[in-house]
Design brief:
Layout: E1 22-40, E2 48-61, E3 67-71, E4 75-76, H1 84-93, E5 110-119, E6 125-133
Antiparallel strand pairs: 1-2, 1-5, 2-3, 2-4, 5-6
Length: 174
Amino acid sequence: MAILEAPKSSSRIRIEGLVPKGTYIATCIAIEDQFGVQRAKYDDPTTLETVNLTSFYFGLKNKQGEMFLIRSKAFKMSLHEKSALFQFLKSWTAEPPRPGFDTETMVSKGAQITIEHGMSQKGRTFANIGVISPVMEGLEGKIVPMEAYLPYLDPVGGAVTPATTIDDSDEVPF
């Protein structure tokens, strides 16, 4: 599976606001690993298990030029062919991840993602990555370069500024 390392910082990426529904060309801007997380087992919700989780953060730009951040769900670090992480990476790269795959290699890679909205049990609307795939041939030039997101990344912990909408005024070269 991925090369596991201790977290570099206790800072976390915070995302506020709602990404609009639609299909976008996105850039993976960060990966967050969580180690030793206790959660209910999938097949037995009454039993707790300790797992390691990983999440992917994507930057995207809509037709109006507004930039947004979205986080994938937290995946259990597993290379089993039926695991959600395996399926996510296979859909994204169009090939199954091999043993020894390092998820950090996905930072700055492009993806075509479809954002769906869901409703929480408390009645709040949230955005979710419904589909991920490689960027369609001919659209590679639409991938926003990683450098555009660097002003919003914390150089120590990889954290992103709290605002979901990023002001791309004079600092972004597009």
